[in-house]
From TrEMBL:
UniProt xrefs under Pfam families: GerE (PF00196)
Membrane-spanning segments: none
Start and end residues of each stretch annotated as Disordered: 1-25
InterPro entries recorded: Sig_transdc_resp-reg_C-effctor (IPR016032), TrmB-like (IPR051797), Tscrpt_reg_LuxR_C (IPR000792), WH-like_DNA-bd_sf (IPR036388)
HTH luxR-type domain sequence ranges: 290-339
Domain of life: Bacteria
Identification of the protein by name: LuxR C-terminal-related transcriptional regulator
PANTHER family cross-referenced by the UniProt entry: HTH-TYPE TRANSCRIPTIONAL REGULATOR TRMBL2
Length: 354
């Protein structure tokens, strides 16, 4: 339909209108009056429509603009000042039908997407049923079963394993067994992060294990104290020791508990130092001594301090003797107190020998 939406530059002339783009204009009483009158007359002169109907010029111009936007009036190509009416059905076909077609396409796409996603519902339901059927926490009391479950989890692991080993170094036999298993994981592209206590830097078999593992791509760090022993696979399964049985373990599948333990590991990891075998003059040695002082100040016995820091009682007492000599303390508690005073300033006076 030639000429629809072609303006002539006049203030009361029509605005450009693309077929299929519905305007936001609404029919006013003035627009209805103009359309009825033009329909009765068959045509009108855009310059005189307002005066003919007794409408103010701006109201008449707004009404004509609305009607042309809605494709209910069109200019005669031979006489741009003359308007003729257009059947509302034709305006509907030009303005609304394209939008309806677009909506139908969108609905078809939505139905297709809904159908494709619905195909996955049985898979999710089946998997959910398996997860819900598996207990969030399993107690395994047989050592061979524990080892077998860890081996199986190691073989299934695809992304990352986090291991936390409090205490001193492990036995050479266990380290060799772990090396073969862990090396295979690393070569599959699994990230491996291991936390030891600083005291593991003393242990020659652990030093060799750390050297071989880091060469394969493992990451190893140490802290003076660790939160507990655990092994986490892919952020989905965590093994922790049984508190009453050294040969038993607790296997955790609950997502919230697993996420909490992995976050705890990540926090400790951010505070830890990269493993270095030779640490006589390192900051790790100072950190161990600071931990000893802090635990002594809390009133812990030598045996408990040694256990907390993963060292032998003999090594612990050697460190304590060095600390007491450096501080001039006559007792372990006084050593802890003097160390706190020195770290906070000379505001307090050391008490007498406890």
């Amino acid at each position: 339909m030639g000429g629809i939406g072609e303006g002539d530059g006049r203030s009361a002339g029509p605005r450009e209108q693309t077929a299929g783009t519905a305007p936001k204009a609404q029919l006013s009483e003035d627009a209805v009056r103009v359309f009825r009158w033009v329909s009765d007359q068959g045509s009108c002169d855009v310059r005189t429509v307002g005066a003919t109907l007794g409408l103010p010029e701006n109201c008449a111009a707004s009404a004509v603009r609305t009607l042309t936007d809605l494709l209910l009036l069109r200019h005669v190509p031979e006489d741009p000042d003359r308007l003729v009416p257009v059947a509302p059905d034709a305006a509907i076909a030009a303005l609304i039908a394209p939008k309806e077609a677009g909506l139908r396409r969108q609905l078809a796409e939505i139905d297709q997407l809904r159908g494709e996603l619905a195909l996955l519902t049985p898979l999710y339901t089946e998997g959910r049923r398996r997860w819900q059927g598996r207990p969030a926490l399993t107690e395994v009391t047989d050592l061979k079963t524990v080892v077998g479950m860890i081996t199986e989890a190691t073989m299934r692991c695809r992304r990352e394993v986090r291991t936390c080993h409090p205490g001193g170094g492990r036995s050479p036999a266990l380290l060799e067994q772990a090396f073969v298993r862990d090396r295979d994981m690393l070569r599959r592209g699994v990230r491996m992060r291991t936390l030891y206590q600083h005291t593991a830097r003393y242990h020659l078999p652990t030093q060799e294990y750390a050297r071989r593992m880091t060469a394969e791509g493992a990451e190893i760090r140490t802290l003076s104290e660790l939160f507990g022993r655990m092994v986490a696979f892919d952020g989905e399964t965590v093994f922790i020791p049984h508190q009453d049985d050294l040969d038993a373990a607790i296997v955790i599948h609950d997502p919230s508990t697993v996420a909490y333990l992995c976050t705890t590991f990540d926090h400790a990891w951010s505070l830890a130092e990269p493993y270095q075998p030779a640490w006589t003059e390192s900051s790790a040695r100072d950190e161990v001594k600071q931990a000893i002082v802090r635990l002594l100040a809390e009133g812990m016995k030598d045996e408990m301090v040694a256990r907390r820091l993963g060292m032998s009682l003999r090594t612990c007492r050697k460190h304590i003797a060095e600390i007491m000599e450096q501080l001039g303390a006559a007792s372990r508690f006084q050593a802890g107190y003097l160390a706190r005073v020195q770290s906070s300033g000379p505001a307090a006076t050391a008490p007498g020998t406890a």
